[in-house]
Write a structure and sequence with these properties.
The protein has 192 residues and is an alpha+beta fold. It is 26% helix and 14% strand. The chain is built from five helices and five strands, in the order ββαβββαααα. Bound molecules: FE2/S2 (inorganic) cluster (2 copies).
Length: 192
Amino acid sequence: MPKTGGYSVDIELTINGERTIVEAGSGDDLATVLRQHGYIDVKCGCDGGTCGASKIFVDGEVRMACGMEATDADGSEIQTVAALGTQADLHPVQQAFVDNFAVQCGFCIPGMVIQAVALLDSNPDPTEQEVREALDDNVCRCTGYQKPVEAVLDAAERMQGEQSVAADGGHPVTVAQHGDESTSCCGGDCDE
Ligand code: FES
Ligand code: FES
């Protein structure tokens, strides 16, 4: 419900399954507003639109939250990386990033994971080249990309059931029933 005559407006979003009203300044981008409201798993790694760190799902589509005016998201369903899994039950893509040592500083990982989930949703058995193309606009200053690519290919295998045992000691990877309580962005390897 918009405030009248003010600098900011209230917009209604469903964020990680929870319907909420957030205040957005006119011209504020969605990434900034989400972070101001505690969704710090949405990262901002550039001046806007070039690093991919701020990728989230908006109504099921991958969007760079930094490149979208918050007011344009009014009424939308938002999913950030934290809602893909919990600390105890990571999404297979998150788990694969951990198990393949694909996380260093972790800053790019939320955007990478979101993009990888979208890729595997549309293409469950991608080639390495297809993974590299999908991650093409996700900039990582740490890993050199090889480990994230390996992680996505590993996640694809896990999600297809071709490799259903995690590398940490043989616990089956559970694809379904991911909760919504975690605030971790990458599976616990980074601070915010
Ligand atoms: S902060 Fe959104 S693409 Fe870099
Ligand atoms: S930017 Fe540090 S892990 Fe990608």
